[in-house]
Structure formats: structure tokens, C-alpha cells
Fold this sequence. Notes:
The complex is a heterodimer of chains A (about 325) and B (about 325).
Chain A: H1 2-18, E1 21-24, E2 29-32, H2 36-79, H3 82-85, E3 89-90, E4 95-96, H4 99-130, H5 135-149, H6 152-174, H7 183-207, H8 211-219, H9 224-253, H10 256-261, H11 279-286, H12 293-324
Antiparallel strand pairs in A: 1-2, 3-4
Chain B: E1 15-19, H1 24-38, E2 42-45, H2 49-57, E3 63-66, H3 72-78, E4 82-97, E5 106-107, H4 109-117, H5 126-131, E6 143-147, H6 152-164, H7 166-171, E7 184-186, H8 188-198, E8 202-207, H9 208-213, E9 220-222, E10 228-229, H10 233-238, E11 264-272, H11 282-296, H12 301-305, H13 313-324, E12 327-328, E13 331-332
Parallel strand pairs in B: 1-2, 1-3, 5-9, 6-7, 6-8
Antiparallel strand pairs in B: 3-11, 4-8, 4-11, 9-10, 12-13
Helix pairs in contact in B: 11-13
Amino acid sequence: MEKVKEKKRKHKMIIHELSGTIWDRENQVLIPLESLSSLKKQEKVFNSSLILVSALILLLVSGIFISLIVGAMPAIKASGISFFLSKTWDPVKGIYGSVPFVVGTLVTSFLALIISVPFSLGVSLYLGEYRPQGWFSSFLKSAIDLMAGIPSVIYGFWALYILVPIVRAVELQLGVPAYGVSILTASIVLAIMIIPYSASLAREVITMVPKNLKEAAYAMGATRFEMIKMVVLTYAKSGLVAAFLLSLGRALGETMAVTMVIGNSANLPTSLFDPSNTIASVIANEFTEAANKIYFSALIEMGLLLFVITALINYAGKAIMKKLSVDR
Amino acid sequence: MSISSCFQTDKSIGLIGAGSSFDYPLFSAMFSKYHEQNHVQINYQSIGSGGGILQLTNKTIDFGASDAPLNEEQTNDMQAAALHIPVCIGAAVISYRIEGVRDTLNFSPQVLANIYLGSIKNWDDPQIQNDNPNINLPHQMITVIHRSDGSGTSYIFTDFLSKVSEKWDKNVGTGTALNWPVGLGGKGNEGVAGLIKQSPGSIGYVELSYAIENKMAIGKVQNQSLQFIYPSINAISASAEMPLPPDAKASITNTISPTGYPISSFSWALIYKEQDYKNRTKEKAEELLQLLWWVVHDGQKFNVDLHYAPLSPQALKVTERILKSATYKGIKIL
């Protein structure tokens, strides 16, 4: 019995200690548990650890950037500007041109974004505006979370066995070479993969639209659709762009699912039904067996290029967000 | 500790190897048996031939394994003589899927080269029909499939094509990753197999074991003696029944052996000829050589079950001589 009481008392003490004060029952006053200087010190330690962690992240990113440049140096010296202009990727003859892969990466990612926006916008409006609660909404929310958790190799296999035959059937109808694996197939898979990201981010943004603005629109006689068009979308514009940009970043770097359905052809594509390749996919494919120094380094230069492209797109996105932002 | 003390403890800290993923299933079976018998732990990392060569160059492993022999640049980088020790013979087999055709197709080297160059576009092309007079081939587009990842299988296949077609040699060449004139790339054997199964009218090449275990259609390929050869274990083994150079660094594709399958190749273990480097002990060098001696003799019985061809008698003779040439401080080890 005594022991239990002792335990309870201790437990209470701990709760009090957490808030930095203790309640003196007899005198009915709060007593600071620690001296003021030690509290200040605590603040300082916490503050500097935050700075340290943030600095580490910065250090990490710049470290990756620098090591990519160092690793890419032999290829930069060997192929120079032709790396960015040449359409040929021929490891046997030592010709390294990135054009087909850059085109493949940009086309698949932006096409995926275009395909995904109506779906993610629709889902996020439904969840954020029309029906934030209810069993269907919570079911939908967990389904989206689940989609984000599926490994990309599973999307790839699903696409290879389900989506590819469908695309092939369409291609046969259209009379184009029916490979089934193509830019279009890869873009559809990518779109499905990025929907959970853009949808849940967009939902967050939409729920943040102030209630009084919405009520004001209703008071002016707006219908629900008009209110969404004029208030929600206008107010959330910059946040929505940010959400879609983050998902674009994921599409740019996606490797496994893309490599399984894009056809891995280093020829420059001429239509959406052509097989193609992306930067991430060629690195994943060829890195393990790149036994030649320049070849190895050319693949690292590809990584550097993807790094720069992603950074540029993020920067452009930030600029757009600033322009669209209502507050400024 | 308590678990290992139940058994006889291992004699040494063991050996580390890295390289070819093609050899990995074979090595796993061999090394687990070897550990059981000789209590030497061998850790093999299946990181790809290129990676294995790189790690051997950096002297971080005891032996490498590669599906392609060292090229000039790699030999220079090593700065010390390396030995190529054949451990098994692998093959690239031609697989296809044509609706309505269940027969085993014949492929002459020229036809294969022309299909992969893109100059034969349809299955009813007279050149293919010529190799297969009794088979009615449909007028269907050929979907050409190759490996998209750098691989030893691509190396074997393109080494063969380079030997039989001047145009291929000039325009494409031999390598683990290439600039393919036509076709779709699949990642790994499973990627190629997936694309072959998926695409009507497709043709591709995969490792023998993969084709057999997945019950894929396998074609016969014509060798130099104008025989159409099915890639059986015996036919692949027979491909090494030809005069071999003393260093075994030989390409046996397009073999002159009349019963040999022409798209076969050795897979090699790579070690330094002089084993006294980077403070290695004599015991370790002996352990390594004993292991490799076992691999090319007793170990070969694992090959057939796992669909790798064992070394032919002629190849074994050359291999024994190579193993005996390894030294420690200039003195022969075996």
C-alpha cells in the first residue's frame, strides 16, 4: 500500500517538474523549481541545438552538391558542353549526351502533373470543403494515405501487367507501333503515385481558408460553386501551387516504377507513345556496371543535372507562389 | 558466442568476394557447402561485375567475379597482374513470344544481328522463314527487347553479334550497356522476361536459368558448323571445347566446337597473381586458393542443378594451370 502511494506522489512530482514550478500545498503558492539562470541556460541549449540541426541539413545538401560536382568532373572535362547538347548516349563509343533523358524526365513529370491535378484538386475540395467529416471521408483519407505508402516497385509491377496491355490496346486502335510501354504509360503511373501527396497537401491548404471569407461570399448570394471559385481557390492559390510543386519533385526523381514501364530507350522520343528514358532511370539501370571512369562520372553528372533541374523548378515554383500569394 | 560454441568454430575470419550477380546463386550454394565442410566463412556481395572489379582494384576484397574479362583500362588501374579463373559457363538464350507459334524457332547469326539492327522488322521476313522452312510465321511486327541495365548477359550477346556481323561491330559494338539501334529495355532478367511475356511478337535474350525456371520459349542458334543448337547444359559446356589461351581470358562466343552453343561465355573469379599485398597473411592466400581449387573441382557439381554449365575438361586443364601460377612473396601457393 505504502509503495503505491509513494509511486503516485512521485508521478505527480514529475508532472509539476515539467512545467518548471511546483505547487506548495501548505503556503498555497507556486515555487519555481529551478533558478532563473538555469532556465535561461536551458533556453540557450535548446536554441543552439535547433541551429545545429538546421545547419547540419544545409551542410548535407551542399555536401551532396559538392560531391556530385567532384564526381562529375572527369565527364565534364571529357565531354564538356556536348553532354547537354548531344542526343546520343553510347557507353561503348564513349559518347555521353543527356538530351533524350532530360526530355524524357521533363515530359513524363509534367504530363503526370497535368493528369493528376484534376483528381487531386477534386479530392481535396471534397475532403476540405464539401465533406470534412463522415465515414466516407475518413475512408477516403485513409485510402489516400495508403496510396502514399505503397512501394514504387509495386506500382511498377501493377502498371506492367495491367496498364501496359490497356495502353497497347489503345495504341493498336490508333495505329501507332503498339509497344504498350511508353511515355504515356509512365506518366499515368507517375500521376497515380503523386496524387496522394498533392491531394493531402491541397486539402490542408483548403481547410485553412478563413470561415468569415466564405460566409461573406454566401452573404453576397454566391452559390457553393461560385464561393469555391472566388474565395477558396483564390485564397489558396499559392498554397495549391506549392502542393503541386512538391508532388512534381517526387515525379522528377521517381525511378523504379518508371523504369519498368517507360521502355528504357535512349532514342529521342517523337510522340507520347514512344518508349523513352529518364535521368533517374538511366542512373539506376547503368550505375552498377559502369566500369569505365568517364562512364561512371557521366552518370554522376546526370545526377548533378537532375539536382539542378529540381532546384530550378523549386525556385520557379517559389517565384510563382510569391506572385500568387494574397497576403502580399 | 553461445550458438557458435555449439559447433566447431571457424578457422579464420573468412574471405570476402564481390561482383557478378549472375554468379550469385551458384556461389551461395557452393560457399554454404564449403563452409559446412571446411569451416571457412565466405561473404559474397552481389553488386555487379563492374563493382566487383572496382573493389578488387581498391584491394578491399579477396576476390572479384565478373562476366566480362578485364578491359585495358581496368587492367591498367589494377597496377598488378590479375588472374582470370573460370568458375562456370553461362549463356544468353533467345526467347520469344509469337501468337500461334509453339515450335522451337531456329535463328542464324545473321538473322539475329539483323533483327537487333532493326533491318528485319516482321516475323514473316524471308530471312527468318529461310531458317524455319516448316513453320508458318505470321505477318507481325517484331518487338525487340534488350536489357536496360548494364549486364554481363548483354556483354555475351553483343560479343557474339559483333563477331558475326561487321555492321553490328561497327555501329554498336560489344559492351554491358549499349546504344541499341531499336527496341525496348527491360531492367534485369525479370524485366526482359516481363516484356517478352507481355508483348505479342517479341524477342529477347535472358540467362538460361531464368528462361528454364519461367518456362519461356527458347530458340536454337546456329553455330559456326552450321548446326542449330539448343542451349542445353551440355551444349553450353561444349562451347569451351576449343583451343584456349593460357590465361583463359578468352571469348568463347561463336565457338568452333561443332556441338557448342554459340552464345556462351565463361564467368570468371578474379584474384591478384601475387597474393602478398596490403599486409595479407600467407594463411589467407592459401585459404583463397584452396577455395577456388575446390570451386573448379568439387564445387562444379552444383552447376548443373542451378542451370550453369560446368567447365569442360579442356577449360579445367587451363584453369588448374592458372591457379597454380598464383604466388605469395614469389613462391607458388598450390
